[in-house]
Design goal:
- This protein is α/β, with parallel strands linked by helices.
- The chain is built from 13 helices and 21 strands.
- 27% of the residues lie in helices and 20% in strands.
- Strands 1-2-5-9-10-11-12-13 form an 8-stranded parallel beta barrel. A 6-stranded antiparallel sheet has the order 14-15-16-21-18-19. It has a 3-stranded antiparallel sheet with strand order 6-8-7.
- Strand 14 and strand 15 form a beta hairpin.
- The protein is globular, with a radius of gyration of 24 Å.
- The N and C termini lie far apart (55 Å).
Length: 507
């Protein structure tokens, strides 16, 4: 019997977009295996994951490859059983136990959902279900994904829309799931996705948009909005399609959130740069602020970034070992200072050196190292900061909620002010993006008083060099950065420092 009634009740009256949401993306088969290398049961996973997620401070977990699929190598992105959680980890009742335990601990569960394509080569799936093209298009220019060797749903058929939306509703209702993350939305939106001229069929207006797929996305998103308050939908959409998270317009898709792929690409590419080139190319990093509010975004560093030779997050960083870890802490500090929700793929919080291998469990032994433990503690504390500071979530989807105070190309430093509804709760993030510390660095602030250092990724507790501002700095009446007051701070090497005003001296 379910014991999550209070969770479901609170969810129904909540606004997920006005709350902190920090998601741990998990591939259950490779998170941890049993002593003899077998898949863990959902019950064992719950008993191990719940305390782990609680300690790390994540608010949500996102499950890759949740629906039944024949091939481990597809990570669950080639689905055959749209109405069933994978039996690799046990029965439907075991899975319900898993969800129930997470909900009782206050952790939401998002499911990866793949309505973009299905396998063409399995006896148990939808391909040639009745001997005909029941679910897909007969024309391979419309019905086949050459890249993935899969079939594309025919969204123009009411039966197909009803099947997919029904399967989605079943999973959300039967298993009390809190949302879906829709994979490969771009491939659904464009008829010419990954196709050369002559390899695709235009729509009735002669364009490349898949009008039926657009209608289908509006349909299932409106169904969630109408019948499942507090349940969210997230799009993994890699193009500049307008209105992914808007509702009501001709092209609006109606999702609640969208993965910020542009932020991810630009930020990781920039962090890869050697330290001496960073100032000259600072634009590449800060330009993402120009469109940071174009959609309701999730900053996502997902499984896709740490596989197939792309290296782990740690090994993407330049410099010697100390600098790699400092850069990784800086990247995370920068990510949590940026507007929007957060998502991190498992293993990043362990400072894992090797890239993700879906056939093996995470490197739990390597995670015991001092520097790795530093990254782990940092994640816990960043998640705590996110929950504790209204400035980091109250206005995260408002244009006025994030302000760039300065971008200093000469010293490769950036200042970001996150604003709360009450300005007394504003938090100022200062990022020193090179290995050279800056002392007596002047920064403009809005008011007088003391500014307390509430976070510092260079703390020795996280494995840093322990430079900082001795608890607090005092504002002077010296205008700077277009603000009436300013403070003089120490910016540690390759580090993020966060400051919060202790309260005004003059009321």
């Amino acid at each position: 019997a379910w014991k999550d009634a209070s969770w479901l009740q609170a969810r129904a009256s909540s606004n997920p977009l006005a709350q902190p949401m920090s998601t741990y993306e998990v591939h259950l088969p490779s998170w941890r295996k049993s002593a003899d290398g077998e898949f863990l049961n959902y019950r064992d996973l719950a008993d191990q994951l719940v305390p782990y997620l609680t300690e790390k401070g994540f608010t949500h977990i996102e499950l890759m490859g949740l629906l039944e699929h024949p091939l481990d190598d597809s990570w669950g992105y080639q689905v055959t059983g749209y109405f069933a959680p994978t039996s690799r980890h046990g029965s439907p009742d075991d899975f319900k136990y898993f969800i129930d335990k997470l909900h009782q601990a206050g952790i939401g569960v998002i499911m990866d959902w793949v309505p973009a394509h299905f396998p063409k080569n399995t006896d148990a799936g939808l391909a040639s279900f009745d001997g005909s093209h029941l679910f897909d298009h007969a024309n391979s220019k419309q019905g086949e994904h050459k890249d993935w060797g899969t079939r594309i749903f025919n969204y123009g058929r009411h039966e197909v829309k009803a099947f997919l939306a029904g399967a989605m509703s079943h999973m959300l209702k039967e298993y009390h799931l809190d949302g879906i993350r829709v994979d490969a939305v771009a491939s659904m939106l464009y008829l010419d996705y990954s196709r050369k001229p002559g390899e695709w069929v235009p729509n009735e207006k002669g364009g490349n948009e898949n009008l039926q797929a657009i209608d289908f996305m509006k349909y299932f998103n409106s169904k969630i909005d109408a019948k499942m308050p507090g349940v969210i939908s997230v799009a993994e959409e890699s193009t500049a399609w307008p209105g992914v998270t808007s509702k009501g317009g001709a092209k609006d898709l109606g999702f609640d959130l969208k993965w910020n792929m542009g932020w991810m690409n630009d930020t990781l590419r920039w962090f890869h740069l050697p330290h001496e080139s960073r100032g000259k190319k600072l634009d590449t990093l800060t330009n993402t602020f120009l469109w940071a509010q174009a959609e309701k975004y999730v900053c996502a560093l997902s499984h896709d970034e740490v596989v197939y030779g792309k290296k782990s997050l740690l090994e993407k960083m330049p410099g010697d070992e100390w600098q790699k870890f400092a850069n990784m802490r800086l990247l995370l500090g920068y990510m949590w200072s940026y507007s929007g929700h957060k998502l991190l793929f498992m293993g990043a919080e362990l400072g894992q050196k090797g890239e993700w291998n879906f056939k093996e469990s995470l490197d739990w032994a390597g995670a015991q190292g001092e520097k790795q433990q530093g990254v782990s503690k940092l994640i816990s504390d960043l998640n705590q900061l996110y929950k504790n500071e209204p400035a980091l979530y109250e206005r995260q989807f408002e244009a006025g909620g994030t302000q760039m105070v300065f971008r200093d190309a000469q010293n490769a430093a950036v200042g970001i002010l996150r604003k709360a509804k009450d300005s007394a709760n504003d938090v100022l993030f200062l990022h020193n993006l090179t290995q050279k510390p800056h002392e007596k660095y002047r920064v403009g602030v809005d008011g007088p008083g003391e500014y307390q250092e509430v976070f510092n990724t260079d703390s020795s507790y996280y494995g840093g060099s322990n430079m900082g501002n001795l608890g607090a700095v005092k504002a002077e009446e010296k205008p700077f950065h277009g603000k009436p007051y300013s403070i003089e701070v120490t910016l540690p090497p390759l580090a993020t420092v966060a400051l919060k005003r202790k309260g005004s001296l003059e009321k």
